[in-house]
Inverse folding.
């Protein structure tokens, strides 16, 4: 595993804050992977102060941390040295982070920067804030996946009404877990489009004629019961699902257990996958239970294929 670069941090502080805050603060930064530079750890008797501080401290730093307190606020280096010119020179190649350990006013030259308040975050929180900044962690909560029924497929059919009804039917099956709906439910799903019941009924009939869906017809209209296997898997693939991986996973399960119980996919997807595996000659003797579980035996070809996975 490659080594992660450890950022170097120069900590500028008043000597009065060293024992009460800076040493513990720098120690925690170092334990978290930040190479914190504190003068008493780096400068030995006989060392050149200029050489150590500037050549080894400031110039080699990835981040310049300024500790601001009630004590340091009155120091000349805050009032005079941290003028706009100094800040500009530091900022050219080094991140500058003010750290407030008391409720003090931030010097004008640093007010354009986001600072870290120890009084608000606590010592541990301040350290984690800085570590997260230096190592690039995301402050936002993790981004979850959208619901399955919201993953709209690219255009599948040339007729726009047929295409809209096909995708709406797929959304409803993913949401409900089964078919058994007609024009009324599809119109509710497509409420943002200016469609009539007659147009949706016509689209359902068109989809059935194209062999894309199975429908049940009555005097009340047509009801979509399920998708044809190849159509359903093509829709899933268009929505970013790795269909080939699902086929391999289900085949392995059937070789080992002769049933689909425990396969974590919706009923429509399981039915489509089983249909394709049977059509391809990889499984046979397929039977279905009322609960939607399939029992099947892998053929010799299916067993060979499973051994190659």
């Amino acid at each position: 595993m490659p080594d992660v670069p450890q950022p170097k941090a120069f900590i500028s502080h008043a000597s009065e804050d060293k024992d009460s805050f800076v040493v513990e603060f720098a120690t925690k930064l170092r334990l978290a992977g930040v190479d914190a530079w504190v003068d008493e750890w780096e400068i030995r008797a006989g060392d050149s102060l200029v050489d150590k501080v500037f050549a080894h401290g400031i110039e080699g730093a990835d981040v310049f941390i300024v500790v601001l307190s009630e004590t340091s606020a009155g120091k000349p280096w805050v009032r005079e040295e941290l003028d706009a010119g100094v800040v500009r020179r530091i900022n050219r190649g080094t991140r500058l982070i003010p750290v407030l350990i008391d409720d003090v006013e931030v010097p004008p030259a640093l007010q354009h920067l986001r600072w870290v308040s120890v009084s608000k975050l606590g010592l541990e929180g301040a350290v984690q804030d800085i570590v997260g900044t230096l190592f690039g962690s995301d402050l936002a909560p993790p981004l979850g996946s959208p619901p399955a029924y919201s993953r709209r497929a690219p255009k599948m059919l040339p007729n726009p009404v047929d295409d809209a009804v096909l995708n709406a039917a797929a959304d409803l099956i993913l949401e409900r877990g089964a078919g058994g709906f007609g024009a009324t439910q599809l119109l509710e799903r497509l409420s943002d489009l200016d469609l009539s019941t007659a147009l949706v009924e016509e689209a359902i009939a068109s989809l059935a004629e194209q062999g894309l869906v199975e429908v049940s017809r009555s005097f009340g209209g047509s009801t979509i019961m399920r998708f044809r296997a190849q159509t359903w898997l093509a829709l899933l693939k268009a929505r970013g699902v790795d269909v080939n991986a699902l086929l391999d996973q289900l085949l392995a399960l059937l070789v080992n257990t002769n049933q689909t119980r425990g396969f974590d996919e919706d009923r429509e997807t399981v039915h489509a996958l089983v249909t394709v595996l049977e059509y391809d000659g990889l499984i046979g003797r397929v039977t279905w239970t009322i609960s939607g579980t399939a029992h099947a035996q892998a053929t010799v070809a299916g067993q060979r294929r499973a051994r190659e996975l």
